[in-house]
Write a structure and sequence with these properties.
mainly alpha; 9 helices; two-stranded antiparallel ribbon
């Protein structure tokens, strides 16, 4: 299953790379449509531009590559969804808004048996979402996250956390407050960390093992309904 997730992760980033190249071809002819370039009208205008031989070939091959990626990604998404729905742990995680089959399956596969983490802090450290410590002269300071653990899952949690904040007032307030104080990137990572803790407690509470020891900063997991736009 990891190979399926890794393959999808690589392909899902390719359309962005392709789309980033095509606007430059349009701009070379004085056409700047930004996001409107990907509408039906914008694409027709892009295809109708008079370009040199090599620029025309580049445009054609990039568009063909883009068109070929979309159906392949749909197939991979269906395969991930089927596998996630087959696993009770992943199904439990998908009850949280912002958490879709990809994030849920990656989370379950990455952490393995949830009982091996004594508390949420251990999980956060394992995922590399814990801020590094930079202390000197009796003063404690927190720096960037350690970035240990699985990079793909961290990226998925950031995306899922940002999406969940659109539906969850608590997460939205947390994001806005941190964005104002520390910037958007720090706020997104904080949401990813908060979401990871929620998912951890959802799995612990759903398991039949000995109840874990809750740390003072570990929030309660909140069960909510899923939405179609989840990652």
């Amino acid at each position: 299953m990891w190979q399926l997730l890794k393959h999808r992760n690589k392909l899902v980033r390719m359309p962005t790379s392709v789309k980033n190249q095509l606007p430059f071809l349009a701009m070379s002819q004085g056409v700047c449509r930004k996001k409107k370039l990907w509408s039906a009208r914008g694409r027709a205008e892009l295809e109708g531009l008079s370009l040199g031989p090599w620029a025309s070939q580049r445009r054609q091959e990039l568009l063909e590559l883009l068109d070929g990626l979309e159906p392949r990604l749909e197939e991979l998404n269906e395969a991930v969804k089927a596998e996630a729905e087959r696993r009770p742990e992943a199904t439990e995680l998908m009850k949280h808004k912002g958490v879709g089959p990809v994030t849920a399956l990656a989370f379950v596969l990455t952490i393995g048996p949830v009982q091996r983490f004594t508390n949420s802090r251990a999980l956060v450290s394992y995922l590399g979402l814990n801020p590094g410590e930079d202390s000197s002269g009796g003063r404690q300071g927190l720096g960037h996250i350690s970035k240990q653990g699985n990079e793909m899952l961290r990226w998925l949690l950031v995306e899922a956390g940002h999406g969940a904040a659109q539906f969850d007032p608590e997460l939205r307030r947390k994001y806005q407050r941190l964005k104002f104080r520390r910037g958007g990137n720090v706020a997104k990572v904080a949401l990813a960390r908060h979401l990871a803790v929620r998912l951890y407690w959802a799995l612990r509470q759903a398991s039949d093992s000995t109840p874990p020891v809750r740390t003072s900063r570990s929030p309660e997991s909140r069960k909510v309904e899923a939405t179609p736009s989840q990652v």
